[in-house]
Structure prediction request, 529 residues.
Amino acid sequence: MSEFHPIEQHPDRPLAFHRIGAMGLRYLFLLRSSWTRIIELAYWPLMQMILWGFMTKFLLTADSPVIKAAGLLIAAVLLWDVMFRSNIGVAVSFLEEMWSRNLAQLFASPLRPYEWAISLLFISLVRTIIGIIPAALLAIPLYSYSIFDMGLPLIAFFINLMIFGGAVGLAVSALVLRFGMGAESLAWVGIFLVAPISGIYYPISILPDWLQPIAWALPSSHVFEGMRAVLIDGQFQTGLFIDAVLLNIVYLAAGVTIFLYVFRLARIKGLLLQMGE
Amino acid sequence: MSTIAISAEKLSKNFDGVVAVNEISFEVTAGTITALLGGNGAGKTTTIAMLLGLLLPSSGRIEILGEDMVQNRHRVLRRMNFGSPYVDLPKRLTVRENLRVFAGLYGLRGVHARIEELVDALALGEFIDRPTGQLSSGQRTRVALAKALINVPSLLLLDEPTASLDPDTGDWVRSYLEEYACETGATILLASHNMNEVDRLCSDVLMMKQGQIVDQGTPKGLVEKYGQESLEQVFLDIARRDENNQQEAAAQ
Prediction:
């Protein structure tokens, strides 16, 4: 019987791209299965950009040179959305497995938890790009502002915010795995905890003195200060960039560690078998 | 090559002080179909989850296909698979998409050819490009079986493979499993509540109760040992034994 003949398999490696690719494919299939989801990905960034774009137009009538810095608010909105989308991209893809009661199927296969984490970060990147690009492009005809004019610093900001959002997403996903679907809302709101102290729309110096060290402990604060330095002073501050990278290494390591720790805990407590809609 | 496909030694699992599986030891011979029987809460699913590596044992040792399951879990998982009606595949993905994903996870080469083989063998053609969530339970069972066989596993763990199926589909699944085991020499361990199924498919039976293996043997041997007429009566005898003893003690 032909269907029973032996199959050929890729060699087993501790980190296998065919497994990461399979999970990436799984999330791409999922995304492709629903046009409304793809539209929803771009919807909120578009709305935010439109709202804050008109706000910027209005504020341009004021005298402050800070406010007059072209596209400051629009850039802030778009970059905040990079961080938000990156976080939600990891968390929602993770939740998809919980909703579809698929964890036991996945981990009865040779998939390693860190391969899964990498695939979650990958799909988060895809979702973020789908979400942000339409808003960034629409800002050009609407406000004569192109975030792409920032040039190479934009790439530095984007990567740093993607990593930070992804690290928070992994940690939040771990909490949902540990505490069950009752903690699902954490996946949606977790990132907002750092929004007020990331200096998205205002400099960190505005914050109370006691809060500033906490703000500076976040990579996002360094990114948004760096963004203002580029847009207001026309300078890319290497020091802020290096600080953001170093902090991101710490946060990503912490996010991955928490994720893997909770995954092991899930295997002890039987959590992989209990998740469902 | 080892003739023992599964070897469990003093295997235990506690959940916050509650003992789900209590120092069970058993072996499953390669190339056989073995049943894991027991009432609800007997510890069958916990045992299967430990064999799959989804659960870490509290103590004890598991060796599968000659490899230590804790140390070399991922190496072994490539050669095994499992199916259960209680664990879903993503509903919005089509059958083909789901099979492609799992083929990738198991590192298959020639994914499309393998999927086409399964489409022919399990008659999936009619609904291969439909979302899995839109299938009938009989169709879903066939898809679950296709997923479980995607890597032509040497060891197949099945949790109630024919639960909630009509007799015709159930019979079809049993025939297919028989054929698969016969053609490939694969080992199958199945948890089931269907005694006719066990009688037909299995050469060995492990009886579980309250987290322990209380007896084992061939279906025929167990029927003779308990002086009963069928495996179902043996099952009831074992399940109700403590209950009857308690009632007698209370009456005295």
Observations:
- Residues 231-251 of chain B form the longest helix (21 residues).
- Chain B has nine helices and ten strands.
- The first strand of chain B starts at residue 4 and ends at 15.
- The mean pLDDT of chain B is 91.
